[in-house]
Amino acid sequence: MARRNVLVLACGALAREVLAIVRRAGWEHVEVRCLPASLHSAPQEIPRAVARELEALAGRYEHVFVAYADCGTVGALDRVLAAHGAERLEGAHCYRRLVYLAQTDDAELRARAEDAARRLGLEFVHRPTGYGDLLPTLTRFVDGARAA
To answer: Domain limits at 109?
Structure first.
């Protein structure tokens, strides 16, 4: 196996997507580590969390990419990355719109999401997702338990 000399430090909200890209590309030299997606609720904490992780991993990778945009850090994340020689996702900010991922068709929840977008001054985007992989996964599990 190739030496893992590239680190992608990702937002936990992007973990699935980043891992899928790395697997699909066959990049065995890339290691992915993720910080909690909950940091988006406190964007002022993102630079500190990224700095802690990069300091703990200093010298272990030749190249470091941080899969965050500025995410409301008002440039603080860029200062951390400059100090560590890391790159990040392009884009000044990731909060231009509120995307409501709806598992159900619930008018009250949609109205609450629209109201939140309006209060935050963000574009509202509604994306019906259904239950995704939850239904087939639970079905497999339950059917397997029944067969056992």
So the answer is: 96-132
CATH number for the domain spanning 57: value is: 3.40.50.11610
Q: Domain check: are 120 and 83 in the same one? A: no
Helix (H) or strand (E) holding 66: strand 63-67
Nearest CA-CA partner of 13 in 36, 31, 32: 36
Alpha carbon separation from 122 to 57, 98, 99, 114 (Å, rounded): 36, 6, 9, 9
Amino acid at 106: D
> Which letter, b or e, does each residue of 100-127 get, where b requires 16 or more Cβ atoms within 10 Å of its Cβ?
beeeeeeeeebeebeeebeeeeeebeee
64/3 same-domain check: yes
Residue 7 CB coordination number (10 Å): 21
| Residue 1 pLDDT grade (very low, low, confident, very high; cuts 50, 70, 90) | very low
Residues 10 and 18: beta-carbon distance below 8 Å: yes
Are 27 and 87 contained in the same domain?
Answer: yes
88 alpha carbon, distance to own chain's centre: 13
Q: What is the pLDDT of residues 10-61, one digit of tens each?
A: 999 888 889 999 999 999 999 999 999 899 888 899 999 999 999 999 999 9
